[in-house]
UniProtKB/TrEMBL annotation:
The keyword DNA-binding applies. This is Rrf2 family transcriptional regulator. PANTHER family: HTH-TYPE TRANSCRIPTIONAL REPRESSOR NSRR, WINGED HELIX-TURN-HELIX TRANSCRIPTIONAL REGULATOR, RRF2 FAMILY. Keywords: DNA-binding. Gene3D superfamilies: Winged helix-like DNA-binding domain superfamily/Winged helix DNA-binding domain. GO terms for molecular function: DNA binding; DNA-binding transcription factor activity. It comes from Oxalobacter vibrioformis.
Length: 141
């Protein structure tokens, strides 16, 4: 299973912001750090804000920060908000298949997706920042 770029970027933004809890972070800074398009990142940040993960402060000294503590942000929840989890076309909304009722393929992928989510549900944003070297890299900007 491969996560979409949107999910990947959302997790990266959350990690960067969580690694800098004592200050406001701006989109340009994150864009430069990850070498991601600023305009694309702005859309991700807006979506994270609407989802209740980030708080935006406007103005010259504005920026973004976490709206919740890092240990309250579940990785599985973030992935569910950003990721279309229907691996097969028939698993998506309105997906139809003439053999769906008897199809083992769909059952297998539903089970695999469920186990994937069970695994990532065990982790929170703070777990992604346990590596001291990674934290130092985020903070030395």
């Amino acid at each position: 299973m491969q996560l979409t770029q949107q999910t990947d970027y959302a997790l990266r933004v959350l990690m960067y912001v969580a690694a800098n809890p004592d200050r406001l972070v701006n989109i340009t800074e994150i864009s430069d750090f990850y070498q991601i398009s600023r305009s694309h990142l702005a859309k991700i940040v807006a979506s994270l804000g609407r989802s209740g993960y980030l708080k935006s402060i406007r103005g010259n000294n504005g920026g973004i920060r976490l709206k919740k503590q890092a240990d309250e942000i579940n990785i599985g929840e973030v992935v569910r908000r950003f990721e279309p989890l229907g691996i097969l076309e028939c698993m998506g909304k309105g997906g139809r298949c003439v053999v769906a009722r008897n199809c083992m393929l769909k059952r297998i992928f539903i089970e695999a997706t469920s186990r994937f989510l069970e695994t990532i549900d065990q982790y929170h944003l703070n777990d992604l920042l346990e590596n001291g070297m990674l934290l130092q890299q985020f903070r030395n900007r």
